[in-house]
Design goal:
The chain is built from nine helices and 15 strands. A seven-stranded mixed beta sheet has the order 11-12-13-10-9-14-15, sandwiched between helices. The protein has a four-stranded mixed beta sheet with strand order 2-4-5-6, covered by helices on one side.
């Protein structure tokens, strides 16, 4: 599939990715990796080249990145190895062992490197697909009640589109997003949000599931995987709405979708990064009926049926009980059906 960020073929169908889960990060019999202490600088050694199977142990890759940083004068040589940055593997999944990475399977989130050094890292280290400048913020809309355009991280080099694999009660789903524009989630052995959706769908048996602050669409796609026939997605942030639509394409074979019509390109949507009035971004054809909107979730009411509706509002900040109760109260005042915050 064509990547909407770089135009390359770095996006794969969910079926293809899920079929590689067992082996993608496993070493071959010839692989050799050196485990390094992340709390100190790496030892003075030349990191090995990738194995003949084209994989390399993640610690050796980080030592290689560290060496480039030293040569470019952006790493002194006294920093611990862990200070190089956060490794975001592609596809992200629950691992029991440190991975051996194939080509273009690592996005590096870092605050150490300039664009020049980042470009050298992408050019010289085959496992790195992109380098992102960590601006120490949470990309995307943190509060659904604000319509301010949020800040993001900065893509320095390569492509920062990557996928996570999330397990559900009825099988895995694949969720892509652009690292620099959306908050980072890591797959876990047990995901409380996904379990909450599973329990609610099982007990309420809705005809329509509304994912009101959908992010990249994870919870709504889980509901679709569980058999809900009609899904409404919404997010005010353009990247969230777009990647939700794109993830419907990625998971189409598991969802009974024949086709997804995305009405605007990623670049065109970026020109209206935050919308208030819900704007229809995408629809589907096939066994699953879907609408994806970009807009203020509180204005979705005209687009929501009156019967058989279950709504999830996945607030980023759930720390304030009063705020959570207020959100639920406002939603119930305007909309029919059940609503929950996972």
């Amino acid at each position: 599939m064509k990547c909407p960020v770089c135009g390359d073929d770095c996006v794969s169908d969910a079926f293809e990715i899920i079929n590689t889960m067992e082996t993608i990060f496993a070493p071959c019999p010839r692989c050799r990796g050196r485990r390094l202490d992340k709390k100190v600088p790496p030892p003075d050694y030349t990191p090995p080249s990738p194995c003949t199977c084209k994989k390399r142990f993640i610690d050796d890759i980080f030592a290689h990145i560290y060496r480039i940083g030293v040569e470019e004068g952006e790493v002194v040589g006294t920093e611990p190895l862990k200070e190089i940055g956060t490794p975001l593997i592609h596809p992200g999944m629950v691992l029991s062992e440190a991975p051996y990475l194939p080509p273009r399977s690592l996005v590096l989130l870092t605050d150490l490197f300039s664009q020049k050094t980042a470009e050298r890292i992408v050019a010289e280290i085959p496992e790195v697909r992109g380098v992102v400048q960590d601006t120490h913020i949470t990309p995307g809309i943190v509060s659904p009640d604000t319509m301010e355009t949020p800040k993001t991280h900065i893509l320095l080099a390569g492509c920062d589109v990557r996928a996570n694999i999330f397990n559900t009660q009825v099988g895995p789903i694949v969720i892509y997003k652009q690292t620099s524009t959306m908050h980072i989630e890591f797959p876990r052995p047990v995901n409380p949000k996904i379990l909450a959706v599973d329990r609610k769908v099982f007990t309420k048996k809705p005809k329509t599931f509304v994912d009101a602050c959908c992010g990249p669409g994870t919870l709504g796609i889980v509901a679709a995987r569980l058999g809900v026939p009609h899904i409404i997605f919404n997010d005010a942030w353009y990247a969230a709405a777009f990647w939700t639509a794109y993830n419907l394409k990625v998971n189409h074979a598991y969802l009974g979708i024949d086709d997804v019509e995305i009405r605007e390109s990623y670049q065109a949507m970026a020109e209206n990064p935050v919308r208030r009035e819900p704007y229809l971004i995408a629809t589907t054809r096939g066994g699953l009926a879907v609408e994806v909107y970009q807009g203020d979730y509180s204005l979705l009411t005209p687009h929501i049926p009156e019967k058989g509706v279950l709504t999830v509002i996945d607030l980023f900040d759930k720390a304030s009980r009063d705020m959570v109760e207020e959100v639920i109260t406002r939603w119930k005042a305007d909309n029919k059906g059940d609503v929950f915050i996972p």
